[in-house]
């Protein structure tokens, strides 16, 4: 088909779009407010080439985030002298019961518990009186997220804890765990007799967010705790929830958890405004 036979659809398009062969999409303006792939335009009945290449790159980055091993040496080196009120010692390196990445991906249960050597190592760090808080860094499903944001976030959170006028915080030695899941923090917290544990974990990557860090808070951690007893702050990264804001929100939850000695569904996050309470009486639809 010649340009003259292409139809009236081309008549209202800017010259540069006619020349490139890409038909614009009016929803394109919405991309200023989201990373979602909307309003991409089309070339004939297909996506424009550069949009397809962007998708393939994002997909490759997501796969790399899952499979690329965390550089634990570099991470521990960046945290070799943790900021106060963390103990002035290098992070304790631990490992889950999943020996390698393939096992970790195929057996999530093995990523929730420490292996025997790590359990023995952690026993040496336990204190008679326990700790108020244990911070646990876990590679999870995004080594990018942990490598990029864990150390800077620890510094910001430590500053918030040091400036807290309501509580003094005794912190357990920092731990870094390879091939771990969120629940492995319960194992660590129980062995350290920590009253609260916060797990910093690489979140499952999306096609626009391969570097997200998740924060999971659990009061009274012990093996067998369910997700209903945790509070989660997700999408911690420069293009999502800023590290400063995440640290402030986590401090709020930590203080409320300590006051009420609870976490999870019983702990409402009012750091950004009033939470909606359900005051409706719950009835069984069978009995009326």
List the SSEs and their pairings.
Layout: H1 15-20, H2 49-67, H3 72-78, E1 92-95, H4 101-106, H5 116-123, E2 134-138, H6 143-162, E3 175-178, H7 184-191, E4 196-202, E5 213-219, E6 230-236, H8 243-260
Parallel strand pairs: 1-3, 2-3, 2-4
Antiparallel strand pairs: 4-5, 5-6
Helix pairs in contact: 6-8
- Could you state the order of secondary-structure elements as H and E? HHHEHHEHEHEEEH
* Major sheet size, sense and barrel closure: 6 strands, mixed
Task: Specify the CATH homologous superfamily of the largest domain.
Answer: Ethanolamine ammonia-lyase light chain (EutC)
**CATH C-level of the largest domain:** Alpha Beta
Number of domains: 2
End-to-end distance, in Å? Answer: 68 Å
Strand content: 5-15%
Gross morphology? globular
Would you kindly provide a written description of the structure presented here, covering whatever features stand out?
The protein is of the alpha/beta class and 288 residues long. The chain has two domains: 17-66, no CATH class; 69-266, Rossmann fold (3-Layer(aba) Sandwich), CATH 3.40.50.11240. Helix content is 32%, strand content 12%. The protein is built from eight helices and six strands, in the order H-H-H-E-H-H-E-H-E-H-E-E-E-H. It has helices spanning 15-20, 49-67, 72-78, 101-106, 116-123, 143-162, 184-191, 243-260, and strands at residues 92-95, 134-138, 175-178, 196-202, 213-219, 230-236. Strands 1-3-2-4-5-6 form a six-stranded mixed beta sheet, with helices on both faces. Helix 6 links the parallel strand 2 and strand 3 (175-178). Helix 6 crosses helix 8. The longest helix is centred in the middle third of the chain and has 20 residues, at 143-162. It is globular. 34% of the residues are buried.
């Amino acid at each position: 088909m010649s340009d003259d036979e292409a139809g009236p659809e081309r008549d209202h398009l800017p010259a540069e779009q006619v020349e490139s062969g890409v038909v614009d999409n009016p929803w394109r303006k919405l991309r200023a407010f989201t990373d979602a792939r909307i309003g991409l335009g089309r070339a004939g009945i297909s996506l424009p080439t550069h949009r397809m290449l962007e998708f393939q790159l994002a997909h490759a980055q997501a796969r790399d985030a899952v499979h690329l091993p965390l550089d634990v040496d570099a991470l521990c080196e960046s945290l070799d002298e943790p900021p106060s009120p963390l103990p002035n010692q290098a992070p304790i390196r631990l490992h889950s019961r999943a020996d390698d990445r393939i096992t970790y991906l195929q057996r999530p249960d093995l990523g929730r518990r420490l292996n025997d050597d790590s359990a023995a190592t952690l026993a040496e760090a336990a204190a008679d009186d326990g700790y108020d808080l244990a911070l646990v860094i876990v590679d999870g499903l995004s080594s990018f997220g942990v490598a990029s944001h864990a150390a800077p976030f620890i510094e910001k959170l430590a500053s918030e804890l040091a400036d807290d006028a309501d509580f003094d915080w005794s912190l357990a030695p920092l731990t870094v765990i390879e091939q771990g899941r969120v629940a492995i923090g319960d194992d660590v917290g129980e062995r350290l007799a920590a009253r609260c544990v916060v797990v910093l974990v690489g979140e499952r990557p999306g096609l626009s967010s391969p570097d997200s860090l998740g924060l999971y808070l659990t009061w009274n951690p012990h093996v067998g705790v369910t997700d209903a007893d945790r509070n989660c702050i997700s999408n911690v990264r420069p293009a999502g929830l800023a590290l400063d804001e995440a640290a402030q929100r986590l401090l709020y939850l930590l203080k409320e958890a300590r006051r009420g000695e609870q976490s999870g569904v019983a702990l409402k996050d009012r750091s950004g405004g009033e939470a909606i309470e359900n005051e409706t009486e719950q009835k069984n639809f069978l009995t009326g």
